[in-house]
Amino acid sequence: MPDPNGFLRYDRRLPARRPVSVRISDWREVYPPAGEELVREQATRCMDCGIPFCHDGCPLGNRIPDWNDLVRTGNWDAAVESLHATNNFPEFTGRLCPAPCEAACVLGISGGQPVSIKQVEVEIADAAAARGFTPRPVPAPSGRSVAVVGSGPAGLAAAQQLARAGHVVTVYERDDAIGGLLRYGIPDFKLEKRHIDARLAQLAAEGVRFRTGVNVGVDVTAEQLRAEHDAVLLACGALQGRDTPETPGRALRGVHQAMAHLVAANRAVAGATTEEAAERRLATAVLPDGTPIDAAGKHVVIIGGGDTAADCLGVAHRQGAAGVHQLDLYPQPPQERDEARDPWPTWPWILRSYPAHEEGGERVFAAAVQEFVDDGTGQVRAVRIAEVTVEKRDGRRIVTVVPGSERELPADLVLLAIGFEGTEQQPLLAQFGVTRNPRGAVDARDDWQTDADGVFVAGDMHRGASLIVWAIAEGRAAAAAIHSYLGGVGALPAPVGPAAQALAVR
């Protein structure tokens, strides 16, 4: 029985972030662990609603009221079990998900303070990690084999589910380490890589096999993969970055995709010793061809207003940028939900400030790049921007420049963080006989299969760039479909269907 007065006795409260002056001098996570008293207090705010809309906000179907009450009463072991019943990797989602469950919390109606669900989740997961993730006993082998191409959250969730059902699972990753964007796309100050390594040890103990440095379609053909396995899951993500080739000066040196910067920085951190990473004594971040892409001492302009842009901002601070401007095409959002535009429990359009924003830099709203300015040697020296208005007509975005509003911002390094166009065009697609749709994603039938029999798809490769909770949910659902396809005994959890969508009214 929940505490019916908990939300009246306690306000929403999060643990204090590490001081800015301290955290920008290293790569450790921004948030320290919350004390048990704070976590239990926040869990007590959950009312265990008769209709828990947080379930609709989260595609995983997390049993949020259940584990909130278990934490409230100090039953941490049961809370861990309840959390893992629907989520393979809550230590990832608790750190990286923007928490649509909180946007759908009943306490958030009319500008109220939702339960800090995400904070409770990560503390439960960390409590389990502190004791060590126990491998689940694997049942009798099914004699069937599955290849998972891609080792991000969708691929790993599917791999774990299938291995626990008795299938032999091999994960193929073209990078030199497992984890996908979790490994090289997400900075350590948001997700220290020890969390990935701990979970991979559990998966390996449960029988999942990992093959790194294997580019399927190049190093191993689709024909070979299908000959060795009874089913294939494509979970390659949506890494094709959106570009602005029509903008004058785009080809200048110093103008890069945001992911190139993040991957190079993550590799520099990964290659450092623990002491070097902690003290920020790292080698210069470089591209695969050796081109430096480090913000140290540079004026940086980040184009984009989302998570990726904020990640680049935090990295630039830690690399020692001379100054940073972050440009957002849209006007500054309101501080609170506009009920007429985004009625509860849908995801609201509000100003979202990340820890990186309090570390420095300047945000510029309603601004569009007109030109990347050449210094005369083919290197960018500035970005010419203009104030704009944005409106939608018949589903199209109309951008209008405000006359006389143009100005220049100094720029030695420009990072494009303006979204993704879908999965990359790569040899494995043609070899498997699948194509990208107009959104750059790969379609799935109701059973998660592509146009190729026995070849399934899940995660961002199917949905387009989305949230980590959707990736895990799709990985679990695709695993259930593969298990059925292989004639497995019983049924695995399938939280979403291929056509499922997030709560929205627009």
UniProtKB/TrEMBL annotation:
Pathway: Amino-acid biosynthesis. It comes from the Bacteria. The keyword Amino-acid biosynthesis applies. InterPro entries: DPD_II (IPR028261), FAD/NAD-bd_sf (IPR036188), FAD/NAD-binding_dom (IPR023753), Glut_synth_ssu1 (IPR006005), Glutamate_Synthase (IPR051394), Helical_ferredxn (IPR009051). Gene3D superfamilies: Alpha-helical ferredoxin, FAD/NAD(P)-binding domain. Residues 145-475 form the FAD/NAD(P)-binding domain. The keyword Electron transport does not apply. Keywords: Amino-acid biosynthesis, Glutamate biosynthesis, Oxidoreductase. This is Glutamate synthase (NADH) small subunit. It comes from Micromonospora chokoriensis.
